[in-house]
Amino acid sequence: RPSSQSAATARQRARWHLRRARALLLSGRSGAARGAVATAEALAGTELPGLRRLKLAAALPNPVVRGAVALKRGLTHQR
Length: 79
Prior knowledge:
Layout: H1 3-26, H2 30-44, H3 51-59, H4 62-77
Helix pairs in contact: 1-2, 1-3, 2-3
């Protein structure tokens, strides 16, 4: 397999892990979300969009994350 194809596959898998981390955070499973973020970071090799934000959100207590999500949803639904 060419290295460019391997890198693209790893990047796609890393994005999948980031989406999984987001879903885990929203469901209240912070520990599993931290694991998914770490896996994404290991696979990516380079910076992925949203990686820093999810890494920070996974480090926060779950009630803080849930409150921030509720606030953001409330603001976007008012428009």
